[in-house]
Amino acid sequence: MNTWLIGVDIEVSDLEFPAYFLIQAESLALAEAGVVYMGRTWWQECLEESDGCRWAYRSGKSVWFNSITLLDDVESSILQGLKFLDAWVVTGDLTSPRVQNQFNEHWDEFTR
Q1: Per its UniProt entry, which superkingdom is the organism in (predicted)?
Q2: Which one has a higher pLDDT value, 95 or 108?
Q3: Confidence band (pLDDT; 50, 70, 90) for 110?
Q4: Which residues touch 84 (CB under 8 Å, ≥6 apart)?
Q5: Percentage of the chain modeled with pLDDT above 70
Q6: Which residue has better confidence, 112 or 61?
C-alpha cells in the first residue's frame, strides 16, 4: 500500500484555508478516485463539480483538490507518527472507492 499527502483548499464564507491529509491506496488512480469521492461528499448536496477537482456547495462553501504527493516509507512513517494529519485508506475500485479511517469509520459517516 502506498501513501500520498493530499492538499485541498477549503472555502467557507469567503475565507479560504488549506487542509492536508494522508491517503493510503494500492495505486495513484485509486488514491485520486478516493480524493474525488471525498471532494464530492465533503458536505451534503454538492451543487457543482468542475473538472473533477473542485466542488461547490451551498452558502459559498467549496473544496479544491490541488496536490497529491507520493511519500516514501520514511516520510510516510514520520507523518503518520506525528499524528496531526488524518489518514484515510482507499479500497474498492475506481468507480466506487471505499474510504475509511484507521478506526474503520467510513468517510460518509465521518462527514455527516
Answers
A1: Bacteria
A2: 95
A3: confident
A4: none
A5: 98
A6: 61
Q: Kindly list the domain boundaries of the chain, sorted by start residue.
A: 20-68+75-111
What is the b/e burial string over 15-53, where b = at least 16 CB atoms within 10 angstroms of the residue's CB?
A: eeeeeebbbbbeeeebbbbbbbbbbebbbeebeeeeeee
The rounded distance, in Å, linking the Cα atoms of 83 and 21 is 10
Contact 17, 72 (CB under 8 A): no
pLDDT at residue 20 is higher than 70: yes
C-alpha cell at 12: 467557507
Question: Could you tell me if 20 and 5 are in contact, meaning their C-beta atoms sit under 8 angstroms apart?
Answer: yes
How close are the terminal C-alpha atoms of the chain, in Å? Answer: 27
Q: How does DSSP assign 33-45, residue by residue?
A: HHHHHHHHTSSSS
Q: What is the mean pLDDT of residues 82-88?
A: 93
